[in-house]
Design goal:
364 residues; 16 helices; HIBYL-CoA-H; ECH_dom; hydrolase; ClpP/crotonase-like_dom_sf
């Protein structure tokens, strides 16, 4: 079965992720097919815009994408499979291409949109959410960090919403996504097929208008709390302030942080705050450094990422044995290692990325 269906319909290049049993989690082959389609259509005058959707049994378009194929990551590490390196280099290159695609790129973010699914949708000209949208960057739960440009797009959420979503991995719905500026338009799920057909038929003139965040979204009443707690200078200060608060929301947030990888919480906070001073290309190069270290600083099954994947997806005991075990035990030196690039700039796998310039994809 083809995992990516790419076809031209009317004025649109239409892409359907077609791996429903895995909630359309991205494989290396899917990443390559997505990039190939986008490059082929970029200069085709007959194609006015690009549409992206998922498929599945629930809702009109199922889930958009649940992330990267973490089972492949685990298997690749154990087998010494060099394609693991290719996966991240090519995925981040694709993320950059989408952000700077010269034609309107429209992401139908229905159902689950997490991790790698955010990477192929946050760069869209129009990010459409529905009442079925379940959005998150949950990587700290598997000993990873919010990559695929997460430092860049979460770092540009209002206030400290980015820190809150990146560290806790909390899932949000459409209203909260609009509040966080991670979505542009809210469309009822039942109307998606008609909108898809209309965009293909009429082109960019049929793009939906931007939607203001509803007043009753769950983030709005917590913005002061998010600013207060997640604006703290470091992760221990955040969790200690949350635990000292005594409120139900603060206790829940603290509980989520206590379950995540202590080491990767610290790395994630540093990633996000550094990313605010970088352009997207610089952020993706930094994330490529970090993800290499996620698998190489502690080789094999010793890494936090391998342990997190084991607990969530392999053994499914949901009892990861983090090292260090406590947020308070992580040292600045532990964190600094993740930001020391393993490559000189001239040899960096993403050295050719430049914001506003997609020439790098022609050479990839």
């Amino acid at each position: 079965m083809r995992e990516v269906l790419a076809e031209v319909v009317g004025k649109a290049g239409c892409i359907t992720l077609n791996r429903p049993r895995a909630l359309n989690a991205l494989s290396l082959g899917m990443i390559r097919e997505l990039a190939s389609a986008l490059l082929a259509w970029r200069d085709d005058p007959a194609i006015e815009l690009v549409l992206l959707r998922g498929t599945g049994k629930e809702g009109p378009f199922g889930a958009l994408c649940a992330g990267g194929d973490i089972r492949f990551f685990h298997q690749a590490v154990l087998a010494g499979d060099a394609r693991l390196e290719d996966f991240f280099t090519e995925e981040y290159t694709l993320n950059h291409l989408i952000h700077f695609y010269p034609k309107p790129y429209v992401a139908f973010m229905d159902g689950v949109v997490m991790g790698g699914g955010m990477g192929i949708s946050q760069g869209a000209r129009c990010r459409i959410v529905t009442e079925r949208t379940k959005m998150a960057m949950p990587e700290t739960a598997i000993g990873l960090f919010p990559d695929v440009g997460g430092g860049w797009f979460l770092g540009r959420c209002p206030g400290r919403i980015g820190e809150y979503l990146a560290l806790t991995g909390e899932a949000i719905g459409a209203a909260e996504a609009l509040q966080a500026r991670l979505a542009d338009a809210l469309v009822p799920a039942k109307d998606l097929p008609a909108l898809w057909d209309r965009l293909a038929r009429e082109g960019a003139s049929a793009l939906p208008a931007h939607t203001l965040a509803p007043a009753d979204n769950k983030l709005a009443p917590r913005l002061h709390d998010i600013e207060r707690f997640f604006g703290e200078p470091d992760v221990p200060a955040m969790v200690h302030a949350l635990e000292a608060d005594g409120g139900e929301w603060a206790a829940h947030a603290a509980g989520m942080l206590r379950k995540r990888s202590p080491l990767m919480l610290h790395v994630t906070l540093e990633q996000l705050r550094r990313a605010r001073g970088l352009d997207l290309a610089g952020d993706l190069r930094m994330e490529r450094d970090i993800v290499r270290h996620c698998f190489q600083l502690r080789p094999g099954t010793a890494s936090e990422t391998m342990e997190g994947i084991r607990a969530l997806a392999i053994d499914k005991d949901h009892a990861p044995r983090w090292n260090p075990a406590r947020i308070e035990d992580v040292t600045p030196g532990d964190v600094a290692k993740f930001f020391d690039s393993p490559w000189p700039m001239h040899a960096h796998p993403l050295r050719d990325l430049s914001d506003g310039d997609v020439a790098a994809f022609e050479a990839a």
